[in-house]
Automatic annotation (TrEMBL), chain B:
Family to which the UniProt record says this protein belongs: Belongs to the binding-protein-dependent transport system permease family.
Signal peptide: none
Protein known as: ABC transporter permease subunit
Subcellular location: Cell membrane
Entry keyword annotation includes ATP-binding: no
UniProt entry keywords in alphabetical sequence: Cell membrane, Membrane, Transmembrane, Transmembrane helix, Transport
Membrane topology classification: Multi-pass membrane protein
Residues annotated as transmembrane: 32-50, 88-112, 133-158, 202-225, 246-267
CDD domains noted in UniProt: TM_PBP2
Chief location of this protein within or outside the cell: membrane
Record has Transport as a keyword: yes
Domain ABC transmembrane type-1: 84-264
UniProtKB/TrEMBL annotation, chain C:
Keyword check for Cell membrane: yes
Entries under PROSITE patterns matching the protein: ABC_TM1
Membrane topology (UniProt): Multi-pass membrane protein
Location (main, coarse): membrane
Protein name: ABC transporter permease
Pfam families: BPD_transp_1
Transmembrane annotation, as ranges: 32-49, 95-115, 136-165, 209-229, 250-278
Ranges where the ABC transmembrane type-1 domain occurs: 87-271
SUPFAM superfamilies in alphabetical order: MetI-like (SSF161098)
InterPro entries, per the entry: MetI-like, MetI-like_sf
Keywords annotated in UniProt: Cell membrane, Membrane, Transmembrane, Transmembrane helix, Transport
Signal peptide: none
Family per similarity comment: Belongs to the binding-protein-dependent transport system permease family.
């Protein structure tokens, strides 16, 4: 295993509001290697979004460390792009699709010619080459999320963080977008951390699935997914190994909902 | 363009964010109170120190303490309270006329497509005519009487209300409107059950904007035309060189303005609290 | 919900109306008739009602219109006309004062809106200043600046400042947190955040504030000259009234009215492009809801 691209050690996050402090993340440690695609699942309210915001440098950790390629993350680091769940709100409504994709590149200081090449390629890759001049609000939800993905891809990040990006799109669009993420991941050789509440999605997409407990969050299990490099919505989801993993992760998440906080305490009725 | 007032964030449809409820829930709200108080105190101290140290001629800008002393003197005179009453009377009369006329005309014009189309250009033309342009006419017609100032007040605030009401009536859900028609609701029933509830948030916005504009024009009329009220006292104070007194009256008009804003917003909030469109937002 | 949502229904309405396609020739004729019909009827009514008027206060409309040209556009040369001597300087002061208010209001508004402690510190003070009816600042500023040009420009600037400032603060404060996170995650610089996030994001509110400020600026232009000045459009109109030159006075009222209408038209054209995205966005939100 090469040195980790993303290194999370003893991460702890406590929200200190006006009322009682809320411990969102108790203690999380894990690593993601360069070029891996890791999914994070957990029961709702498991602090998944908190974790992702800490990774993205949008939220300071209370204690513990997050490092990207060996560099500690204190603010949003260079070489990281984020795709958020609220696609409609993460796109700048006063800009066209192409301008939205181009904007972070401008801020990064990429030269004009290079910018238009990257924008063109990214829109092509997500299948939106012909809507560059439209405004995001003229597009359907699934297309808007494609724009957000194109924007992240054009940024050429080392690490791509995705926070439940498909939670608000319809089921069919969702399958297409999942395949798009797999294709981009392979094409760009980028490291991806994909947060989702959908167990099937996590297994279908990931090389590994991190299963989180309910809050305050700890890591329940780091599940390897051996479904091969090529995934197919019908074949993969029909495979016995997929079914086995699905059952296992499903049971873990159910146990997590009941408050189980370690794999040893989990009562799994279906042998894996 | 219509005459609006500083900072009144315009016309919000009922689901506008950042309302009072949202503010109240903000954590650290107590910090805002402390900082806000600190800001006011800092302003008062600066206004005290700057003239006292001669940085600014105290003849032009008296120290805070002198202004407050002048204010204390003023509020002990019956003249001040009569003037305040006059100002409030002109303001509330003008506003009432505008609101009644604006709502009635707005509903009638808004509900009849022919009227809406026929009046659109006239409204767009008359609305930006500055009401102060009417000052000479008002003076010729009524001298320094209250009617002269009322004309300005009504002209300025009427458009605020009318335009909002028109927008509100247009906002009525066409499906609901068709349904009401197919059940052969009478016109009055349609107004009561359909148009009025939809337009109410807009009416309240118009009321809030109109109230602030009405106050501006009330004071303006008093200053320029000489209609009795706080504005006239201010003009008199200026002519007699009573500078601290003048500042004291400026402060009074500012406090009046704050009171009008708070009152209008509270009324708006109350009226919309039970409103279905507000409850609908929570569900959505 | 973006900043966008705190808008004028009235503005949105206007946009919808403009967007209505008028395809047929009859449609064009119809809309022209609708546009000019009522104004013509009203003017005709005024004309007829005052045709035989003997009242000194209510001169016939024909007389007012006949006075309009000579009052504003007669002189030894064009440079000598009242239009050049009084109207244009007033307009110039208005524009300079308004421009100052725009720059200061947007600049300070972005700063105060973006820095929360600063906002909390300044908010009550700003609330008070915006509540002061701007005209009462005329006598105050006269103390410092006399009755000259600088006083009038300053009055306009200080009066028009508050709507712009407070709406900008509100617009920047109400920016969608998801957009703010996006800008942060992509490491926008400070200036990038101002230019590419805050200014465009707050533009609907800024335009609303600027529209309110323009009407206040016009009011202040007129009354600063009515109250204390020896030249300017407002002064001329009051002079006519005091000397009972009633038709001239009416022509002045009309001049003021035309100026107001013209400025509001220019404002609308100038801001239409800035807010084109916003009207489309609003429509898509309504349609999608």
């Amino acid at each position: 295993m090469s040195s980790p691209m993303l290194d999370v050690r003893a991460l702890n996050k406590v929200y200190a509001g006006r009322g009682d402090p809320v411990e969102a993340i108790a203690d999380l440690s894990f690593q993601v290697s360069d070029g891996e695609l890791v999914c994070v699942v957990g029961p709702s309210g498991a602090g998944k979004t908190t974790l992702l915001r800490c990774l993205a440098g949008l939220l300071p950790a209370t204690s513990g460390d997050v490092a990207l390629a060996g560099e500690p993350v204190t603010g949003p680091p260079q070489g990281m792009a984020v795709v958020l769940q609220e696609y409609g709100r993460s796109l700048f409504p006063w800009m066209t699709v192409a301008q939205n994709v181009e904007l972070p590149l401008k801020e990064k200081g990429v030269a004009r010619g290079e910018r238009s090449r990257l924008v063109g390629e990214a829109l092509e890759a997500v299948g939106l080459a012909d809507v560059g001049r439209s405004y995001p609000w003229q597009l359907s939800g699934g297309m808007q999320q494609r724009v957000a993905i194109a924007r992240a891809a054009a940024y050429e990040p080392q690490v791509l963080l995705m926070d439940e990006p498909f939670a608000a799109v319809d089921a069919q669009t969702r399958f297409e977008l999942e395949d798009l993420v797999r294709a981009l991941w392979k094409g760009l050789g980028v490291t991806v951390v994909f947060v989702t509440h959908d167990i099937d999605e996590a297994i279908y997409l990931g090389e590994r699935v991190l299963v989180l407990s309910a809050r305050p969050t700890v890591l329940l299990e780091d599940v390897r997914v051996d479904l091969g490099a090529e995934r197919d919505q019908l074949e993969t989801r029909g495979a016995p190994e997929f079914a086995r993993l699905r059952t296992h992760v499903y049971e873990l998440v159910q146990q997590a909902k009941l408050g189980v906080r370690s794999l040893a305490d989990a009562r799994l009725t279906h042998a894996g | 363009m219509s005459e609006g007032v500083a900072g009144v964030v315009e016309p919000a449809p009922p689901n506008a964010p950042g309302g009072y409820a949202a503010r109240g829930r903000r954590p650290l709200a107590h910090r805002a109170v402390w900082l806000g108080t600190a800001g006011v105190v800092a302003l008062l101290v600066v206004l005290q120190v700057v003239p006292s140290t001669g940085l600014v001629n105290p003849d032009y800008l008296p120290p805070t303490t002198e202004i407050l002393a002048a204010l204390a003197d003023r509020v002990q005179t019956p003249e001040f309270w009569v003037a305040l009453g006059d100002t409030l009377l002109t303001w509330v009369t003008g506003l009432a006329i505008s609101v009644v006329a604006g709502v009635v005309l707005g509903v009638v014009i808004g509900m009849v497509p022919f009227l809406r189309e026929a009046t659109a250009s006239t409204i767009e033309f008359l609305r930006p005519v500055p009401s102060v342009a009417l000052i000479p006419i008002a003076v010729l017609l009524w001298g320094t009487g209250m009617q002269a100032t009322l004309l300005l007040v009504v002209y300025a605030s009427f458009w605020q209300v009318l335009v909002q009401v028109l927008a509100g009536v247009q906002d009525v859900d066409p499906v609901a409107s068709d349904t009401a028609r197919s059940y052969r609701f009478s016109v009055l029933a349609r107004v009561r059950t359909l148009v009025w509830p939809t337009a109410l948030p807009y009416v309240m916005t118009g009321l809030r904007l109109g109230a602030a504009v009405a106050l501006i024009l009330t004071v303006t009329g008093e200053m320029l035309i000489g209609t009795p009220g706080i504005g006239k006292l201010l003009a008199v104070a200026r002519e007699s060189g009573a500078v601290p007194s003048m500042y004291a009256l400026v402060v009074v008009t500012g406090l009046l303005g704050v009171a009008v804003n708070l009152l209008a917003r509270a009324l708006e909030h109350r009226a919309l609290f039970w409103h279905p469109s507000v409850r609908g937002e929570v569900a959505a | 919900m973006t900043a966008a949502q705190a808008t004028a229904p009235a503005t949105a309405q206007a946009a919808t109306r403009q967007a209505t396609p008028r395809r047929t020739a009859w449609g064009v004729v119809r809309s022209v008739l609708y546009a000019v019909g009522l104004p013509l009827v009203l003017l005709a009514a005024w004309w007829v009602a005052t045709a035989d008027s003997e009242s000194p206060f209510n001169p016939p409309l024909s007389e007012i219109l006949a006075t309009f040209g000579p009052t504003w556009f007669s002189g030894d040369s064009f440079a000598d006309t009242r239009f050049v001597q009084d109207v244009l300087p007033s307009l110039g002061r208005l524009l300079v004062g308004y421009a100052i208010a725009l720059v200061l209001g947007i600049g300070l508004g972005v700063l105060i809106g973006a820095v929360r402690p600063l906002r909390e510190l300044a908010e009550p003070v700003l609330e008070f200043f915006r509540a002061i009816p701007p005209p009462v600042m005329v006598p105050v500023l006269m103390l410092f600046l006399g009755v000259g040009t600088s006083m009038r420009v300053f009055v306009i600037a200080t009066g028009a400042l508050w709507p712009i400032l407070l709406n900008t603060v509100e617009g920047v404060r109400g920016l969608d947190p998801v957009l703010k996170d996006t800008a942060r995650a992509f490491r926008f610089g400070r200036w990038g955040r101002v230019r590419r996030l805050m200014l465009p994001g707050a533009s609907p509110q800024i335009v609303t504030g600027a529209r309110q400020a323009l009407s206040i600026a016009i009011i202040l232009m007129v009354i600063s000259e009515m109250f204390a000045a020896r030249d300017g459009l407002g002064f001329s109109v009051v002079q006519f009234q005091r000397s009972f030159a009633v038709p001239e006075m009416w022509s002045g009222v009309i001049m003021l009215g035309l100026l107001g209408v013209l400025l509001s038209f220019v404002f609308r054209v100038a801001t239409a492009a800035v807010l084109a995205w916003y009207h489309g966005y609003l429509r898509s939100q309504r349609g999608g809801a």
